[in-house]
């Protein structure tokens, strides 16, 4: 494919920088792009952006051509460029050519559409070529980032990009049920998706707490079970068309047979237990189920599918199928008789039987079925798509049995998780598939432990350690009967407690990045804490004296994924469930993390450098703001609303600097606290400072970057870190006064005290580090213990500088 650019390569690219996707490069050599393209060849020469830009489109359908011109001319103008609506000699041309003319045909986005493109920047302008319109859209998304980051220098490096995605399905699920999201906000997310090259909008429209689309066939659904918040059919068509112009498919989700409380309110005669139902406003899993023994249930589903087929042209329709609580089925004599008649032994068999009948309905309407893990059953046809929320083991099993599959576990962005956790979440399994064989000189031991949670059952686990000559060689961790994972043994954080044996071991679990900081003693047992992201959980346990060599040999690990199974994995979807998300903090929870998830699904598997990812993430966050995403605006507006009558530029700046030191608790910690407080429901206000905090503090990301540069030998970074800490230190007295003035902020007084104590420690450490004064080991341990005591279990607002201070202490100790 380079042949067509041969004259350009031979004549202009005198000094080349080749940046293949498989090799990490120094950060200052690569353009800021996310996702990174498959191949990029860059010259030291540049194209001056000193003329008006003009966009010329060739071979595109009239509808998409008109949309693209309006959309990107406005975007380039917003970046500060002069844009000419017509091509002239005085303009700088951006020429887009689609290889096969589609002038008379508008193409809907579909699975496995051709998305590849070439983008060339030469001394004469920009040339984009693509076999199909969807590749042209991707190329323009890339060019948009390049132009944004060139807005100050007004020059672009001469380069050539050849690019195509690794996975054809790169999606975002948005839950419009638990909290309703307006059409305008959805369109904004679609614009962000297009910029990140995400191509599937999975629209969750029905659930226990509401029915969100107008039905002509069963109108009581939106009249009785929506609280007046639903999408008209005209609005749905508007969203679908808008997404289509951007190259994004829209897949609706109609939840059956469970998550059906809204159906029960409107049409209780369809349910297993026929009785009056009230709208559910709480979060959780509820019992009402459609009755698979009733023919009218299938008439209902047929009518729903027929309506959805007129609104959503995509071949796929998601039926949900998750979290079916079988209690009502088990209590129903009618359902039990139906099961006997059809020789269905279990509730799982009944659901598979139901799904097969639903699949037949879908097929009659030219739709393909997809659903969550729970619908997986060998009786289903092989074209059923399974979306896995249960994890890699489930995904691997599904793909190995020949079903197309998507990964969502590890991409749940409603959970506040660090971006690098999502970035490591590879759909193809990686790493160890069995324990290391035990050498004669090695010994092993196993520990059982329990990690209580704030809601639901405790997490149980097993820790297996392999040592040689009293030196720990390998650690393996199993959680809740999941496969074992080999842990990374981390020396970057100082163990916080004295004891016979101390351990810092890290894995990625379904809960998030999971760090076990443990003290092990045969007499006293296992103690310590587990950090899930930034959230602290206590842990305790005991030595397993019965663990044998045979147990070690037979430890369950994730099976290696075959090449055929990998071919059945079509990609993944980020999921944004809206229990703690409203339209007012939607973008805060979504962006810029979605750019990193998009890169995991678009770019080469070998692109795994998380530090490089973070180097790009912060500027890409600025780009996202420039194209109209609201993550920064929602943060500012949220803090302004928290200040209420005390809002002023000075107070807002003060609170924003305090917020830089804070993060919302990771995992489902906040959900569980809300449950304990009796606020785990639809009507609970989500208007506190924690609701508007970014998942990761951008200021802390920068501090971690500076600390990494110091570790690589750049001592100038210490002064930069000290400068930021000093700015924060100067605020604490004013902040204490401000918090006392505002009753709604009184609860932040404790985090403020903790932040000040952490900052005192950090400043003392870094000032010793600057003058290269060593800290005595006893003082190091005392400081580490203090930092651990500051970090609290069961809080919604985490003083995230505490973890940074631990890293700083360890770096200066080295």
From TrEMBL:
<dbReference type="Pfam" id="PF00728">
    <property type="entry name" value="Glyco_hydro_20"/>
</dbReference>
<comment type="similarity">
    <text>Belongs to the glycosyl hydrolase 20 family.</text>
</comment>
<protein>
    <recommendedName>
        <fullName>N-acetyl-beta-glucosaminidase</fullName>
    </recommendedName>
</protein>
<feature type="domain" description="Beta-hexosaminidase bacterial type N-terminal">
    <location>
        <begin position="31"/>
        <end position="163"/>
    </location>
</feature>
<dbReference type="InterPro" id="IPR015882">
    <property type="entry name" value="HEX_bac_N"/>
</dbReference>
<dbReference type="InterPro" id="IPR029018">
    <property type="entry name" value="Hex-like_dom2"/>
</dbReference>
<keyword id="KW-0378">Hydrolase</keyword>
<keyword id="KW-0732">Signal</keyword>
<feature type="domain" description="Glycoside hydrolase family 20 catalytic">
    <location>
        <begin position="167"/>
        <end position="448"/>
    </location>
</feature>
<keyword id="KW-0326">Glycosidase</keyword>
<dbReference type="InterPro" id="IPR017853">
    <property type="entry name" value="GH"/>
</dbReference>
<feature type="domain" description="Glycoside hydrolase family 20 catalytic">
    <location>
        <begin position="557"/>
        <end position="604"/>
    </location>
</feature>
<feature type="signal peptide">
    <location>
        <begin position="1"/>
        <end position="24"/>
    </location>
</feature>
<dbReference type="InterPro" id="IPR025705">
    <property type="entry name" value="Beta_hexosaminidase_sua/sub"/>
</dbReference>
<dbReference type="Pfam" id="PF02838">
    <property type="entry name" value="Glyco_hydro_20b"/>
</dbReference>
<dbReference type="InterPro" id="IPR015883">
    <property type="entry name" value="Glyco_hydro_20_cat"/>
</dbReference>
